[in-house]
Write a structure and sequence with these properties.
homodimer, Tetracycline Repressor, domain 2, DNA-binding
Chain lengths: ~190, ~190
DNA sequence: GTCTATATTCCGATAGAC
DNA sequence: GTCTATCGGAATATAGAC
């Protein structure tokens, strides 16, 4: 993939997380990259093509995390997950789920499908990690791992939203509560950056 | 307050919940109300004025809920809260926190302040209800009610986001998990509409 | 208080040269 | 693959008549 194309996707990803899909323009990408908006249209004829590409990359990122952490314990996988969100929090960036799901009904159908696929993929990974950690005795929760994954993602997603408005410390307050609920013996500050 | 003004605010509220603040236009309000966009500008010179008015109404709504449920038990207050969200869920509408916090950094400062005020007000109400319900022995949780309120709001907010993408039943799955965690002896389906 | 009319700006998108 | 140039449309917003 060409550098320009990669840079466009990378910057679009950042803009989606910081300002939302409907709030950024081709110009917001063209100016920092010092190209004309026609160059962006060359790679992504319509804005939704760019949106889909950003999600596609995220899907691959999730797959990589998944394959790259296969040999880790469930607990380590969860620390990895929480670490990713904490890093985003420090950068005032929300996650793609938190940014794209509120605007879901304004998207064209193909992009909606991609958003849904992304949500399912992330949830699946989290559920797997939770189940694994429970099997190791490092986590306790009742019910199915898929249901618990919904609550975990919910907390991660919302903590990024609320942190920006109410202050960064909200993230740790929320995550530590969640970890306590699941009887984890570690807290956010225990994760090495 | 004039009918037109009220109708504008009401429709704007709906559009914010369904499509997001940055995705709706004055025309989306003018057409259904059969007025010209100049009429909307008469009441709300700038779009942010309209946004602030919508939040203002929500703030008063929260205050009303609060005063109107003072004599209810904490448990009944929570059922009321969950019921409000469930009704929104059925209408495919997300809450204002879920819609406005992702776009927070695109707002002008006065509107950001209002968003923050709204978040704090809702959290405060939830914390109060949780504390009350805990005192009644109808709910169990560790730590401060304020921290727990963050998790409760997080689940309500996210369930609306995810329900639209993954299916309406997500709402009940998530809320029932949350209630189970707090050892509540009721579930979503027990709430009368 | 609502209208017509319009200013202004910005957006996504495309044609065609290089 | 990137550019210049431009189109068509939509957005927010305002002036001034009624």
């Amino acid at each position: 993939m060409s550098d320009t194309k990669e840079n466009i996707i990378g910057l679009a990803d950042e803009l989606i997380r910081k300002r939302g899909f409907n709030a950024f323009s081709y110009n917001d990408i063209a100016v920092p990259l010092a190209v004309r908006n026609a160059a962006i249209h060359y790679y992504f004829p319509a804005k939704s093509d760019l949106g889909e590409a950003v999600i596609e990359v995220e899907l691959r990122r999730v797959e990589e995390y998944r394959r790259g952490s296969e040999r880790l314990t469930g607990e380590e996988q969860l620390k990895l997950l929480v670490g990713v969100f904490r890093r985003n929090n420090k950068l005032r960036m929300i996650c793609l789920m938190g940014s794209l799901t509120p605007d879901y009904d304004t998207f064209e159908v193909p992009m909606r499908r991609k958003v849904k696929e992304m949500c399912l993929s992330i949830l699946d990974w989290v559920a797997e990690s939770l189940e694994k950690a429970r099997g190791e005795g490092k986590l306790q929760f009742e019910g199915e791992a898929g249901d618990r994954a919904l609550l975990v993602i919910s907390t991660l997603l919302s903590s990024l939203l609320l942190s920006r408005v109410l202050g960064t410390n909200i993230f740790e307050r929320m995550l530590d509560q969640l970890l306590q609920d699941m009887r984890a013996d570690w807290r956010v500050k225990d994760i090495k950056l």
